[in-house]
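Structural prep section.
Before we set up the soaks we want a predicted structure of the protein with zinc ion in place, mainly to decide which crystallisation condition to try first. Input record follows.
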Amino acid sequence: MTKEQYKASVKQLIKWADDYYKYDDLSATDDEYDKLNRLIVEYEKRYPQDIDPNSPTLKVGAGVLEKFEKSSHITPMWSQEDIFDDDELDRWIQRAFKIVGHSDFICEPKYDGVSLNLIYKDGKLFKAITRGDGKTGEDVTNNAKTILSIPQTINHDKTIEIRGEVVIKNSDFHLLNIQREKDGKQLFANPRNCAAGSLKQLDSSITSKRKLYFVAWGVGHNSLKMDKISDIFKFLYTLGFKEAPIKKVCKNKNDIIEFYNKMIKIKDNIDIGLDGMVIKYDDIKHHTALGWTVKYPKWSCAYKFPAVEKTTKLNGILLQVGRTGVITPVAILEPVLIDGSTVAKASLHNFKQIEKLGLKIGDSVVVHKSGDIIPKVIKVLQDRRTGVEENIIKPKFCPTCDKLLLQEDILLKCQNLNCKDRLQNSIIHFASKNCANIQGLGSNIVKTLIKQGVIKDILDIYNITYDKLVGIETFKDKKINNLLEAIENSKNMPLDRFINSLSIEHIGEVASLTIAKKFSLGFVNVSKDDIVAIDGFGDEIANSLVEFLEINRSFIAKLINTIKPKELKIKEIKNNIFKDKRVVLTGTMPVNRSVIKKNLENLGAKIGSSISSNTHFLIYGQNSGSKLAKAKTEGTTTLSYDDYLKLL
Ligand SMILES: [Zn+2]
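Run finished without errors. Recording the tokens verbatim:
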């Protein structure tokens, strides 16, 4: 590194640190930050005369936001020395060994959250201060008071500083982001980001809704008489602070490494984000002996976990057509090693997500991967753009069959029944119970028949012959005949089941029945206006059906020709006094109300629940209340139950 590079690197690191600590924004991954930080430290060791007094290597955190009151810690809140491999761990232990010899270590998780110092006076929470620059932080007392896991009072009347991490549990983080997605709000990139942003709200009522969680990991100023950190922990738990999900007193290096590997293995099962393991000398008398640097105590370090977030480049977008025809965009990435495996693709969920991220091809992006979780693009680093990035265009046509796609707010779907990528599902759904109900044509058989080339589309089901099935895997005489019979029996299925069998988005059993009753076989030519005119049918259903018909009309005509679905008989209701009239029922009737309702509906009446000027009849029973009075003012004809019987 040259002196010029050093200066530029310091500037870059200051910006990243400011974004991270002050503005809770992510402009670099921890991994990048750590790497640059180490290059700077190396340079500063070699050329101490060049050290920039503003270098972040000399500072804890990155100062304080103006919007909050500043407050001082009683004793400084240190940062941690980070170590990244077993050799560094060995060096860290050796360095201390020369001074204190053999001693126990207390190991517990390093939480990926925001550090907070709680000052208790006379047993009451007096102040809550963020780490800030280590001496002074932001006073977030009012916000801390909304966090349930922070005791408002403790059974200890001496002044004490209790330190810990404010986090949001992974499960709460996901729920919050789901809600924000629904509300059209910007998503939080990760739980740390979310916890920090939530703790530093000027309006405490927002903080109180965020389900923040506090885990204690140490003490600052105190007058405790304990000799060991592990005993202090036990004391904190008796005061009502939450316990670390996992911790251990380790005897030596091997013990530490074994516990570290165990923690990595189980960290994804813990509901709090962990990014490393903190190792401290358990014996407090060693702390004074080992001392402090300008930045951190020498008796404590953080053994970081392998990075789960890394920066890479988006090279392109792949469109995946799912089994149901839904199109999912997948990010094609410059391959990058994350958490032990090479990541070259990442999920983007849908085009709405691309829009929200502001993603362009060629962008630098932050990718998150941990354990078995599918890698995700969580952030676009827009300040790294060079101007050559390209917009991502939402496709209009299916990448597989080239047919027009159904476009909704989030959903993007190929509606072509015979699209190669969704064919298998089209057929499985067609043959299922509430559709064509072809027994013996379950998903495994469908897969086999497609593979063997026996069926290429739904229509081919009706071209299956005995000869075509003979010799295929498990098909024996009886099974073949049963299947052929079931196929034959599916002909003349009721029209509503036929419509339901076409897997049209938003159109299930109930909607199919309505459409079949309303349009009969003419449904293949309905317009958008015809559909939205039906009670309870909106634009989404109308668009879906009309576009589906547009794409599949000639194929459906062939299907109808072969299957000849049975049109539904619509009973002609004879003229009677209740036909097409609005009727309301009130009071206690001599028979069950649902019986009367059913009877009236059979007569063609429409049953309402409240009286309006459109109501024709009110049928009242015992103890009728306000409805009877209202009917009189609205001019509704009122009938007692006996009057009603006489009219039948
Ligand atoms: Zn398609």
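Observations: DSSP finds 22 helices and 22 strands in the chain.
Flagged for discussion at group meeting.
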